Amino acid sequence: MIKKLTLCFTTTVLLACCQTRPKENFDLLIVNASIVDVKSGEVSVGKLIGITNDTIRMVDNMDHENKFESTIKLDAENNYVMPGLWDMHVHFRGGDTLIDENKNLLPLFLAYGVTTVRDAGGDMTASVMGWQEQIKQRTLLGPNIYTSGPKLDGANPAWEGSLKVETHDDIKKAIDSLDLLGVDYVKMYDGSLTKEAFYGIIQEAEKRSLKTTGHMPLSADILKAARLGLDGSEHMYYVLKSCSPAQDSLTRLNIGFGMIETILGTYDPILARQVFLELGAQGFYVTPTNAVVKVLSDVSERDHSKDSLLAYIGEGIIKTYQNRVEGAKKARALGRRNLYQDILSLSTQYIPEMNRAGINILTGSDSGAFNSYCYPGESLIKELILLVESGLTPQQALKASIINGPHFFGLDDFYGSIAAGKVADIIVLRKNPLDDIENTKTLAKLIKGGKVYDIKEIHAILKSLNDQN
User: Predicted confidence band at 386 (pLDDT cuts at 50, 70, 90)?
Assistant: First the structure.
């Protein structure tokens, strides 16, 4: 009898302890979430997500909701929750007079679910790095920024703010400067860069474990560059050169961009597959930037004056758009072939083949001053849509942004999925983007820096910034 009473008493104490165990507390608890796993292509319904500060601390089933409490609770209403998008090719530029106009566009990325951008070089590095830190400290609303700092170009740089690189000593000094700045990667540009300097930059950066990507002088060879350590290529011209049987004769002619028409017209799918397989085996990255190609393909004909997002663009940046417009009009008047349209047509061949070969495709819009009517945020959604139109599945297109973006920087442990330990840069969509990539347009909520934003709220912030100009 005494043993039974003791057992009863012990059981009662244990039950009492279980009942009084404190609930795990979070800053933010998202309930009724349908989590989109971009890597597997699966959706997990009825999920809880616990967030403290800016980090996901818990993912569990709704059955266990009573184990947790939070300062703020967000009901996802069974909508689709996934990591924020990455735009791996944007520009902040235009000189000192356009610094504020560039800064005011930062929330526009968030309004389209873009929570991280890779700045591909400009002429306001100090400001960009300042924004980078302010966003980390949550004193400025905008996407995470990774930057190359100044571009590396030749004796006569095509863009303001670029570093001139001609000799071996120039290469070392330039990389020293980038090291001191603390840039995230190295970006080359082919304005007047020689192939020797291009190869030398890659080798010097490789010694310092710095990632390299950018434009390649068309006198150079992308396969040789990749063997030396080049990590990626921006736009498609440079990779496609190696896919033409005429590449050797074109190189000897040394006619620069004059060879693009021949490159596109002599694309060889069999040769391309060999090139792509070698690049894929090396873990190479390619950023097609079809969004800007699409805009420029008809910029001389289309009237953009009624674009809804034009209201958010500063007058100074709008003026820079005219350079491309006037150039396209002159080319059209001279009857020149529209190579942008050729690139888009050819993309249905090379983009699926690159993906099959294991090349890491990256989503990049090329939005920024001088790239006419290619708007921050919106253009990244267009890039996703164009990748699908080129032959990728919605899952593959999303992977190019959400998985391959952080992978470029070796940040797989912190981004790419909704899981404990990952950074809580999160978007909530009303419709499943795996079913239709157009569903990336159904953004309802965004979580950034531990705060929940309604998309209407972000547009109101943008309007207030525009009203101040």
Answer: very high
pLDDT tens per residue, range 59-84: 999 999 999 999 999 999 999 999 99
Superfamily of domain 84-408: Metal-dependent hydrolases (3.20.20.140)
For the ranges 1-5, 27-31, 210-214, 316-320, which has the lowest average pLDDT?
A: 1-5
Q: pTM above 0.90?
A: yes
Q: Which two tokens stand for residue 259?
A: 């060879």
Mean pLDDT of the chain: 93
State the Cα–Cα distance between residues 56 and 313, nearest whole angstrom. 34
Q: Write out the two tokens for 366.
A: 């090329």
Tell me how far CA of residue 344 lies from CA of 265, 276, 347, 399, in angstroms.
13, 18, 5, 21
28's tokens: 């933010």
- Provide the CA 419 distance to its chain's centre, in angstroms: 21
**Which phi and psi angles does 207 have, rounded to 5°?**
-60, -30
pLDDT at 49 over 90: yes
Looking at 308-465, which runs of residues are DSSP E strands?
360-361, 426-429, 443-448, 451-454
One-letter amino acid at 237 equals: Y
Is 22-82+422-468 a CATH 2.30.40.10 domain?
A: yes
* DSSP per-residue codes, 187-250: EE--SS--HHHHHHHHHHHHHTT--EEE---TTS-HHHHHHHT--EEESSHHHHHTTSTTHHHH
Within 106-167, residue ranges assigned H as helices are 106-110, 125-136
Q: Is 57 helix (H, G, I), strand (E, B) or coil?
A: strand
